[in-house]
Design a protein that fits this description.
By secondary structure, this protein is of the alpha/beta class. It is built from ten helices and seven strands. Helix 7 (about 130-140) links the parallel strand 4 and strand 5 (about 140).
Length: about 210
């Protein structure tokens, strides 16, 4: 069961140069799939109240549609990463396709905030040697995780189970900036904060957690 929440053990054996955990013993909170006008503002308000800095893995097409929302994320001190342009699964695709998905998203993000992202996360967490080679050529770093909350199932009890059983000091936590989990979004962030506090764990900013 642990592998469903934390693929780190197998992943580090195959791809040790990917980030599977933080390097400073602090929790890094990440959000996939945004920006989204239905949910991004909820996230920004909640993490601002809790004083948490996060890494948002944004879909390039969403950045293209909502550049102001992308700038708002960045202006509030959060880091923006690349989550491909169309949220396409890259596993099994030719390198030309993989490169195009990453570069188009980089262009959209740079157009919105003025800088290209340093970090990438593959849609649905599916990666390959082709992706690894492409990221190396583009001088980008792949950020995976060691705690998937399954919040997209929109069930707070599932999120609670994951956090209670698997949250630890060096966790890279995946949540979603997505309407699928809109109804529990504020509560799941609050739950993460409270469980981390009970376990006497600290949150870190993306730059300190990954460098």
């Amino acid at each position: 069961m642990r592998l469903f929440y934390n693929p780190e053990f197998i992943g580090t054996k195959l791809f040790p140069d990917f980030f599977w955990r933080t390097i400073n013993g602090k929790i890094l909170l990440t959000f996939d799939d945004g920006p989204n006008p239905e949910t991004t503002e909820i996230i920004l308000k909640k993490i601002s109240d809790l004083k948490i800095k996060s890494l948002f893995f944004c879909v390039g097409n969403n950045v293209f549609k909502y550049p102001e929302l992308t700038r708002e994320i960045f202006s509030e001190g959060h880091l923006i990463g690349n989550h491909s342009f169309n949220h396409s699964v890259l596993l099994g695709k030719p390198q030309s396709f993989v490169r195009n998905e990453i570069q188009k998203a980089n262009v959209a993000i740079e157009s919105a905030i003025g800088i290209q992202p340093e970090y990438f996360r593959p849609p649905k967490g599916r990666f390959s040697l082709t992706l690894k080679r492409t990221l190396t050529e583009l001088k980008m770093k792949n950020v995976m995780w060691n705690l998937l909350t399954f919040d997209y199932k929109n069930d707070l009890n599932i999120v609670k189970f994951a956090l209670i059983n698997f949250l630890k000091a060096d966790s890279i936590v995946v949540m979603h900036d997505n309407k699928k989990n809109k109804s529990i979004l504020s509560e799941e962030i609050e739950l993460l904060f409270n469980i981390a506090k009970e376990k006497e764990l600290e949150f870190g900013a993306p730059a300190e957690c990954l460098k």
